[in-house]
Amino acid sequence: MVPPPPATYTSGDIEAAKTTACAAWDRAARSTAQASKASATALEADPNWRTPASAAALAAEKRTGIAAISNLRNSIGPATPQSLADPMTNWITLSINELHAMNQRDWTEAERVQEQGNALVDTIASECGLR
């Protein structure tokens, strides 16, 4: 049996997939930044992460991150250029790892994977023409 040839996409298909992925990235970046800022503000007001306000802000930050990851993952299509899909997929993986480390209270690991994810932001933003 001969395998089918690889899928081919028109330039319009590729541009539409890129536009979809980049719009999802922009929403993800804005929503997670807003949630992180709210969380940081709550922790600055009271550094005890167990207070109701801090705990609520941290929980909202995690929920926002999970929603952003899910939306972004669903927005990367087969016609999305690899130069965009690869760093986005890597960012998703690192974000999941960061959330896991945060749930485990492994702050060193959370910071390490966050820095790796942050290193991909400029690549993604550049690919999307956002900077």
From TrEMBL:
- Superkingdom, according to UniProt? Bacteria
List keywords of the entry alphabetically.
Plasmid
- The name of this protein is Uncharacterized protein
Task: Specify the species.
Answer: Mycolicibacterium chubuense (strain NBB4) (Mycobacterium chubuense)
